[in-house]
Bacterial Pleckstrin homology domain-containing protein (Bacillus norwichensis), 97 residues
Amino acid sequence: MRLLAVQSYVKVQKQIIDAEIVYKEENRQIHLYQDRLVTKYREFPISDISDLSFRKMGDEGGLLYVHTSRGIFSYTVPSSPESFIKAFRIHIKKEYF
């Protein structure tokens, strides 16, 4: 299927090394296709997604929420996902809802 939009997100992992807490950030991407939304470890069929929303935290980034029939999944985004959400609502939501 055709790629509609890409959104960067950050996964922060906490590890304890030698009795010290170490935070490791990994940059990842969410890919929106006509039939699915794909992250590094998850894939959601479009028919399972009811909406995408964003809550701003800080100056630029925040949390991107993926509302699905299996629950709400959140992703930390370094910048506004406005164009990503718009692509979903224009190309996908109108077809399924």
